[in-house]
Specification:
Number of strands: 15
Strand content: 25-35%
Shape: globular
Radius of gyration: 19 Å
Order of helices and strands: EHHEEEHEHEEHEHEHEEEHEEE
Oligomer: single chain
Distance between the termini: 33 Å
Largest sheet: 8 strands, mixed
Length: 283
């Protein structure tokens, strides 16, 4: 294993971090620049240097307050966008950066550091190598545009961030869920403004939709006891796409397949039950 050192973000690191980010993800410069403008700071990133260059990095964002059961709560941070230059992979550097991000989160006083693997094959990396555990599940359904054309539609309208946040929390009160920080709502709203989609109120619920080419990702659909297909059809009138991928809480009945979602590494084991189907929300 080559020698490397870990340190935190410093102003001037942006160009090196952009190179690392692009080694792991297909995001545009516009997206990366917007992310740095919104979230970058001394306590927001751990990076690794080797051979005089930045070779790996991961970011730490203030995350939701997790309400796993009744009045119990855990504060959380969100570990995001771990990437390592291709030629430095397989040497344990990424694992060290992830552990460094978790240590930073615990140093800042968070009870948990949450992470969403970029693919199914990465769950063992965070579970076995990083000590994380499943805390969140999603129920995911996919519809084609043709399937939604003949479906009934719920009343639907765009709403501002503040209104969305209030309705969301009222719908999830008493359920195992994460209460999002304002920065997450603002970021989601900015993505919708940049790429299409939006925050919506429906008959008895809310939804956050985001466009990605010919796919509309309904990152969060909360219509407890309602017709989720009719909700997706209503959103289709605002978000024209070829396919619609819908995510909803696993603890509410509805169509689709339940799969694991968010992992969390805990500062210490809580004294109360921690479920594995908590609704983390849009990520």
């Amino acid at each position: 294993m080559s020698d490397y050192t870990l340190r935190r973000f410093r102003p001037g690191d942006e160009s090196a971090l952009r190179r690392v980010w692009k080694a792991g993800f297909d995001d545009t410069d516009e997206y990366i620049d917007a992310f740095f403008a919104a979230f970058a700071g001394p306590d927001s990133c751990v990076l690794a240097e080797a051979d005089g260059i930045v070779v790996s990095a991961m970011y730490l964002l203030d995350g939701p307050v997790l309400f796993p059961y009744r009045r119990n709560r855990l504060t959380s941070a969100y570990a995001y966008a771990l990437a390592t230059l291709n030629e430095y992979r397989g040497r344990g550097i990424g694992s060290a950066v992830y552990r460094g991000v978790c240590a930073l989160g615990f140093e800042r006083g968070f009870d948990a550091v949450c992470v969403l693997p970029a693919g199914e094959g990465l769950y063992p990396f965070y579970e076995a190598g990083g000590g994380a555990r499943i805390v969140s599940s999603v129920r995911e359904t996919e519809y084609s545009a043709q399937e939604l054309r003949g479906a009934g539609r719920l009343p639907c309208a765009r709403i501002p961030v503040e209104e969305y946040a209030g309705i969301r929390e009222s719908l999830l009160q008493g359920e195992a869920h994460g209460a999002m920080p304002e920065s997450f709502y603002r970021w989601q709203d900015s993505l919708c403004g940049r790429y299409g989609g939006g925050l919506f109120v429906l008959d008895g619920g809310v939804a956050a939709a985001e466009m990605d080419g010919g796919v509309c990702h309904i990152r969060e659909l909360l219509v407890p006891g309602g017709d989720e297909k009719a909700a997706a059809a209503a959103l289709a009138s605002f978000c024209r796409a070829e396919r619609y991928v819908v995510r909803a809480p696993a603890f509410w009945d509805g169509p689709g397949t339940v799969r694991r979602h968010m992992l969390a590494r805990l500062r210490e084991e809580p004294a109360f039950y921690l479920p594995d189907d908590l609704w983390w929300g849009f990520a």
